[in-house]
């Protein structure tokens, strides 16, 4: 951030009175521009013994597999965002959303929410940011070609939980992702 | 948003190619400035049969009672944000955080996460944005003087769930708050 989005003047870094952290402050209108984490929402769509994955056609991690997920937008709910991303990336419709993983990625200031969901039908196809969409059983999952640590975690947890038949919320703090974060 | 935070040029509203919504686009460097929902994180601190509330000393809703909560910051986890806000607003320490309410407020582009938590001790006091901190039993809660709909919901749910002895995650979409949203 170099310029004030309200008045166009230059920005300085300083600690406001009564605060304890450096903020982006406008040198002219003195507005304090706070930076806030972003929410990534998506689905883990299930069809019989398989799950739906998308092969990314955009950076980061183009060519790697992921769950349909993306940045939540203003004016929508987290569930709405998960449904929208599933429709946009996989042209797929899902039902019975249940919050399944909630992952804080503090180093990249993101919070990811993945909903377990039932895939409604087999009428899916690659969206604009997707190269391919496919259903995978546990044995078929391309574990070495998954795009993100959070997606790896969600899939591992799902297949473990499926053996027990219960799918509790997994609340994870990821301090140091071993694969790139969602973007 | 009037000016580009990267180059200082003026912003126009337009639908980028391949998109379906109006975005804030820089007229000079063509950067697309996306707007994203903010996360509010906080705690519902419990001490024996009582809960801790804070009386706000700042707008919005100055003079009304709330749970310690506030905007999550970059570089922290949701739990960290809830702990920090509880310390900042009530000078209180809590343990055993468990995600209890997750509320999407689409009309104001906020997602609120309230963690049920155990208050560690009675050494609490009003922080900078707080006029008073107090413990209230169910009968004593100032229901008509609560600051926000989400706080009302969380407290109602807590006292109901306490009768059953189970505290599941409540995932709520609030389309039209009857009280002002958190801010
Ligand atoms: Zn300014
Ligand atoms: Zn620009």
Helices and strands in order:
Two copies of one chain form a homodimer.
Chain A: E1 11-14, E2 23-26, E3 32-33, E4 38-47, E5 50-56, E6 65-66, E7 69-71, H1 78-90, E8 94-105, E9 110-119, E10 130-136, H2 149-164, E11 170-173
Parallel strand pairs in A: 4-9, 8-11
Antiparallel strand pairs in A: 1-2, 2-3, 4-5, 4-7, 5-6, 5-10, 8-9
One zinc ion binds at residues 4, 6-7, 9, 26, 28-29, 31 of chain B.
Write a structural description.
The first copy, chain A, is built from 2 helices and 11 strands; from the N terminus they run βββββββαβββαβ. In chain A, strand 2 and strand 3 form a beta hairpin. The model of chain A has no long low-confidence stretch (mean pLDDT 95). The relative contact order of chain A is 0.19. In chain A, strands 4, 5, 6, 7, 8, 9, 10 and 11 form an 8-stranded mixed beta sheet that branches. Chain A has a 3-stranded antiparallel beta sheet with strand order 1-2-3, with no helix packed on it. Chain A has 2 domains: 35 residues, Ubiquitin Ligase Nedd4, Chain: W (Single Sheet); 136 residues, Nucleoside Triphosphate Pyrophosphohydrolase (Alpha-Beta Complex). With 183 residues, chain A is an alpha+beta fold. Chain A is elongated and about 60 Å long. Chains A and B meet through helix 1 and strand 8 of A and helix 1 and strand 8 of B. Bound molecules: zinc ion (2 copies). One zinc ion binds next to loops of chain A.
